[in-house]
Amino acid sequence: xxxxxxxxxxxxxxxxDGGFPVDHPDADxxxxxxxxxxxxxxxxxxxxxxxxxxxxxxxxxxxxxxxGAVFKxxxxxxxxxxxxxxxxxxxxxTARATxxxxxxxxxxx
Length: 109
Known about the structure:
The protein is mostly helical and about 110 residues long. The protein has a single domain (about 1-109), classed as Serine Threonine Protein Phosphatase 5, Tetratricopeptide repeat (Alpha Horseshoe). It has helices at about 1-5, 10-15, 30-40, 40-50, 65-70, 75-85, 95-100.
């Protein structure tokens, strides 16, 4: 999980190649995609989406990776998640509501 949080894409790829589940959650329900998105690692997000990560899987608080990326102002990650099929209306608060709250509705098109 730390490799996603730290953007160690190559190391994470090796774990995935070894059978680590792409949507494995931590104790708070955060998947590796959520952690990579929240910490602004667009390359890692791209790898995970390419490997089949669910872009709309919510954590235990009902938050989506997209809403987390919008909240943190991670524009490149937001674009990757949208391109990967993330739903701006998933979760609570939604990514759309978060973007509106921060005056960043432009992020979601």
